């Protein structure tokens, strides 16, 4: 069996048997193709299956090439357009010919599918599909575990209070939904038909509905009133708790902008309210990547956050000078840097919904062997939408790398070491903003190296000690986060501290067991694929009591200058996210 037949078989089995791609690939030893290649193609084709099914249906190719089964067509078309090497078969091979001879038509449909989702380039669409999903993600961009029993998740929707209120949304878009008090009722509901809704008990203005319901065509979604955002991804802005009038907030790694719009909503007074602490806050959104900066702008515009947020597009956060007057009113920073993305559902092939083309579907406007219908109205294809797609926004999530997270051993260890060094540098830079009093640090990673270890290193860094940064303890956290049950791993905190204390030249005071417990308790985790219906996530808060420490401004300035000048080797993580 060829690579393509084997990958198609895996997709068929995943749909039929409801198991993960990973367990199918690695659970059998008799594949002819090497496991890594097979896993990569099956996972990528699954992620792209929604787009590719649309392309195949609209082209009508399957009606002509009857020997191509839908899954086989999806994996072949994936490689035709999305693999650098193209289809890994000789040009004269029957399977290659069956799709390659329709390349022009398929390519036209792929372009239309991309434009319908509002992406200017294939790379932008790719970044969204990889990133999300979560998001746009997806946290939800196609990685919704609609057809998986292993990963039950709801569709999380944050009501955008910059544009509407929860009460208004319940009375309009969700007027026909029955409210249920338990999230499990939503998770157990039949995917498509159940109009039931759960109001989240931790994050204000967040609701969960059945994952099978697509709201992206609803008026409210298109008006920017609803934001598809995983519950875990709402933790950082909520934990940072910016109040109207408190001062400016920096979102250091902002695109695609789910947390930025959340910050904007939290720091803005609602219509009819007045801000009694002086002027409203400004949110400063910094994003290094050019393409993602454009997605960020688009999302801010749609969410009505552009009036509150100033965008620093193509801006490396490490190169922002904390001492410039522009940042003199910055009181809080949200740091959500690139990470391994190991908490994102679907990275291991679990829970990726696989869409297949319907062979009998009506073709689009580029029918194979048919003339264009004169009756066809001008519409979707002629009018590329400017609204960020579900992949774009839902993924919110916070994606990172392009390849599934399947490395093990030394390779994974070295990648995590690089990532955590990069994340720590960004966190230390955030700590060097002279007037800042609160920081949240988050990742969508399940690895302690990117989470508790970074927190401990940051707490014992020179800048934290000079400026008086400490962990935001559980009892100091905003109410919903105090109640959240999953906390940091004590063992990971202890290991990180021991490693640090043993490093030559590190003057770390001994950490008592009660301190280890307190730091772990202060950290917040979310389980991937657990009963909470979230992706894997980590967030911790840092606070600084300004009084005595403002007297140390000189020290902060000095640290900031050193940080800006330091030879940052510019590890940018996996900016495919
Ligand atoms: C995990 S994503 C952020 C997701 C975002 N917070 C959200 O919720 O929509 C990380 C982002 O940081 C950006 N980034 C990485 N290094 C950066 C740096 N040094 N300065 C600014 N942005 C950076 C990446 O391009 C990527 O868009």
UniProtKB/TrEMBL annotation:
Biased composition (Basic residues): 369-378
Residue ranges of the TM segments: none
UniProt: S-adenosyl-L-methionine binding residues: 253-259, 287, 316, 336
InterPro entries attached to this UniProt entry: MeTrfase_RsmB-F_NOP2_cat, MeTrfase_RsmB-F_NOP2_dom, NSUN5_7_fdxn-like, NSUN5_RCM1_N, RCMT, SAM-dependent_MTases_sf
GO BP of this protein: rRNA base methylation
Gene3D superfamilies: Sun protein, domain 3, Vaccinia Virus protein VP39
Pfam family, one: NSUN5_N
Keyword field contains Methyltransferase: yes
Active site residues according to the UniProt entry: 444 (nucleophile)
Single GO cellular component term: nucleolus
Residue span(s) of domain SAM-dependent MTase RsmB/NOP-type: 145-545
Tree of life domain: Eukaryota
Record's keyword annotation contains RNA-binding: yes
One Gene Ontology term of the molecular function aspect: RNA binding
Keywords: Methyltransferase, RNA-binding, S-adenosyl-L-methionine, Transferase
Region ranges (Disordered): 355-407
Similarity comment: family membership: Belongs to the class I-like SAM-binding methyltransferase superfamily. RsmB/NOP family.
Name of the protein in question: SAM-dependent MTase RsmB/NOP-type domain-containing protein
């Amino acid at each position: 069996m060829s690579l393509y037949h084997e990958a198609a078989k895996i997709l068929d089995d995943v749909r039929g048997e409801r198991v993960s791609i990973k367990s199918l690939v690695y659970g059998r030893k008799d594949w002819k193709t090497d496991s890594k290649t097979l896993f990569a193609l099956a996972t990528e084709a699954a992620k792209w299956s929604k787009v590719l099914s649309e392309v195949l249906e609209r082209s009508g190719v399957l009606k002509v090439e009857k020997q191509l089964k839908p899954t086989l067509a999806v994996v072949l078309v994936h490689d035709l357009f999305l693999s650098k090497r193209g289809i890994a078969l000789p040009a004269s091979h029957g399977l290659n010919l069956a799709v390659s001879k329709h390349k022009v038509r398929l390519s036209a449909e792929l372009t239309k599918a991309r434009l319908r989702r509002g992406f200017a380039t294939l790379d932008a669409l790719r970044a969204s599909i990889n990133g999300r999903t979560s998001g746009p993600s997806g946290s939800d961009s196609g990685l919704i575990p609609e057809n998986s029993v292993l990963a039950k998740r709801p569709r999380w929707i944050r009501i955008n209070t910059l544009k509407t209120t929860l009460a208004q949304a319940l009375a309009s878009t969700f007027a026909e939904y029955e409210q249920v008090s338990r999230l499990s009722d939503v998770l157990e509901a039949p995917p498509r038909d159940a109009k039931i809704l759960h109001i989240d008990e931790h994050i204000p203005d967040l609701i969960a509905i059945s994952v099978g319901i697509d709201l992206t065509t609803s008026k409210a979604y298109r008006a920017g009133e609803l934001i598809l955002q995983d519950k875990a991804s709402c933790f950082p802005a909520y934990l940072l708790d910016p109040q109207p009038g408190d001062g400016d907030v920096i979102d250091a790694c902002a695109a695609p902008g789910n947390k930025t719009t959340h910050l904007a909503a939290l720091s803005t007074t609602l219509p009819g309210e007045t801000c009694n602490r002086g002027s409203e806050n400004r949110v400063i959104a910094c994003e290094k990547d050019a393409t993602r900066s454009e997605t960020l702008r688009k999302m801010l515009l749609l969410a009505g956050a552009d009036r509150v947020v100033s965008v620093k597009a193509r801006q490396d956060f490490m190169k922002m000078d904390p001492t410039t007057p522009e940042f003199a009113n910055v009181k809080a920073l949200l740091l959500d840097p690139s990470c391994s993305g190991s908490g994102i559902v679907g990275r291991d092939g679990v829970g990726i919904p696989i869409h297949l083309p319907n062979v009998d579907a009506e073709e689009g406007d580029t029918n194979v062997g048919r003339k264009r219908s004169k009756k066809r109205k001008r519409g979707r294809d002629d009018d590329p939408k400017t609204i960020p797609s579900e992949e774009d926004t839902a993924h919110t999530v916070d994606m990172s790398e392009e390849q599934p997270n399947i490395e093990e051993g030394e390779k994974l260890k070295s990648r995590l070491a690089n990532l955590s060094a990069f994340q720590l540098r960004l966190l230390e830079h955030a700590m060097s903003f002279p007037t800042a009093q609160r920081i949240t640090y988050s990742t969508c990673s399940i690895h302690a190296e990117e989470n508790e270890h970074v927190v401990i290193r940051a707490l014992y860094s020179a800048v934290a000690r000079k400026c008086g940064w400490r962990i935001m303890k559980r009892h100091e956290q905003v109410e919903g986060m105090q109640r959240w049950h999953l906390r940091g791993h004590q063992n990971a905190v202890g290991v990180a501290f021991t490693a640090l204390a043993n490093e030559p030249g590190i003057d770390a005071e001994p950490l008592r067991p009660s301190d280890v417990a307190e730091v772990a308790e202060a950290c917040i985790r979310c389980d991937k694929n657990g009963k909470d219906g979230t992706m894997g996530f980590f967030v911790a808060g840092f606070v600084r009591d300004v009084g005595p420490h403002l007297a140390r401004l000189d020290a902060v300035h000095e640290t900031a200058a050193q940080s800006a000048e330091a030879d940052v080797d510019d590890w940018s993580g996996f900016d495919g996210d």
